[in-house]
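seq:
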Amino acid sequence: MRLSLFFLMLILLPVSAAVHAWLFARNQLPVLLEEARVCLEKEGVIQPVVTLHCLDVDLAGEAPSPEARRRAVEAVARIGALRLKPGADRLHVNARVTASLQENRLHVSGWLPGEGDIAKLAAVLSELRPDLTLDTTALMHAPEIRWPPDFQPPLDAANAFLAPVVDTLHVPAELHASFQGDTLTLRGMLPAGGLKEEILSALSAGSAAAEIDPSGLKASPHVRPAPFAKEKLLAAFLVSFFTAPPPRRFDIHDQGAPRLEGTATRRLESEWLTLLRPVTGASRVDSRLVLLPSLYHIPDYKPRSMLPSALLAQLREVLQSLTISFEEGSSRIPAADQTRLAAVAPSLLAAGPALALVIGGHPDPLGDATREAALARARAEAVLSFLIEQGVPAHDISAVAFEPVSAGSTAAPVQPRSVEILIK
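struct:
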């Protein structure tokens, strides 16, 4: 009897185990599979697949990031009844790269399959924008990262995979030119195609600068086309603007009004605005020019007269206090001013042939422009004739009409309807 029971137990034991396994597979495994799938979906895994071999689980799908993949795997591993063998998961992450440009530093982040891919990407970006500092500290690599299905090698600037990064490198065009002292400094970004070289060549040949510093001016194929980046036209304006003495500055951006700073006469301002019109189209020009009667009135104007500095300073002081005033509508020098001019004549004679002068008449800004200009020139010629009568040689003396300056302006003459003598 006991032996019969023993054999019966031997027969029933595997049957019981099989029934238990069948019940587990029917009732519990679907719950475990669903729990594992929920773990994947919670982390944003696309098309998650969970398969079981007994209690060994295999995972598949596309995780949105390496961090999300790690969290998904750890969550499945915490399901006690399942066993995740090393290498049994087929969860992957598609390679991804993003970039942000901050001043002169390009920050690249994301993930790539291998360390060699990071080095290759860095080489590509450095070639595209050698002017930038490349920061790849936020770029990682891992074996579970793979190329997207539509990726087509090689990894170069033309690859669609890098399109978002390359788009970041497309920066707006801008130009900044500052003339201080003897140096004309250029900064900015220009589209590639020869515009930078044309500007440098034109300024080297035609500007008043003794030195041109172009170290801050870059040209790149990744600079967006700009309305102002017009060959010949932009260079023609710059040469004209920077032929005038410093200090002066010109700034223009891809979007926004060009800005002019410095000193000018009305004629020069009109000339520059005319040259700028085909460059900027309908854009308004932000002119911050201080209008002067002539360029000789610029505070930092350097005379071309080759005189000793002490003599030059002495003559300037004498002439600065010599303003000849005229009656309204008259070009006759008053008697008192004739006496003053006669007293100055010996100093002008003593300076010798190296002295060059400009005698300029100030028009009345409130009168008729044509009439006042003619009258101002007649007054200047009257002063010139008087000096010649006193023996002053006229080989390098010019009589001109200065340009009118509105009364109340900082550059307006102290007295209207007057004549000044300046050293060229």
